[in-house]
Amino acid sequence: SSLEEAAKSFPGARARHGRLSLDVKLVEDCFKESLDNISQHMRELVRAVKGIRCILVVGGFAESPFLIKRMESDFSSAECRVARPRDASIAVVKGAAMYGQNPDVITARISKYTYGVKTRTSFDEKKHPKSKRLEDDNGPYCTDVFDKFILINDSVESGKPIERSYLPVYATQTEVAFPIYRSTKHDAMFTDDSSCEHLLTVTVHSPNVERGENRKLLVTMDFSSTLLHFQAVDVTSGKSAQVDIQFDTKYP
Fold first, then answer.
1. How far apart are the C-alpha atoms of 195 and 197, rounded to whole Å?
2. Running DSSP on this structure, what letter comes out for residue 128?
3. To 5 degrees, how large is the angle CA 230–CA 234–CA 236?
């Protein structure tokens, strides 16, 4: 038959009476590329996130003995064990259903990015490059500073906002803009770093110019559900601006 003829072209494959049988090695080779990619990704995560004590294997592929064998070979040790929980193949679906019924079931997430805002600060010759030095009526300052709220691989807890306070740059300034950025680096210092991506800009009104530059602006980032809630408040007037950002997903 055509099946039997085709099987002859593949070492380890046999066909008889319309049935195809494959050697274990041939089947394992079919999964090699996927297993290599998974293992490489896991190595990157293990290097980035310290103190991992257990790796849970879930999802449909968790039923594959080849995957379990590879994970145990590459990552199982006295410090870290590899485990496949009960009903591993439906764990992802079950988790999605539980989340749909009660979003508060997820209390924390590990951030894939570093999040912060673009700002400026007084120029310090000891730590700021000359290329970032600008000057205005207030004197020399460092531009494009990446003021970080959340660092990559941080555990971000729901309902625990992270706060920063700022002041207007100029005494007559009636609006203050906060460009929001994220980075794939832990230590990016400036928003024009190649690792940084501009997400959007939030502008808050600050009308009480009679107080000059002495007007506190309170900025918070708060993880809630699958969103990062960003809010900027002009404390003097009570004016505020806010936006929700999809947490750790691609952004247009």
1. 7
2. S
3. 155
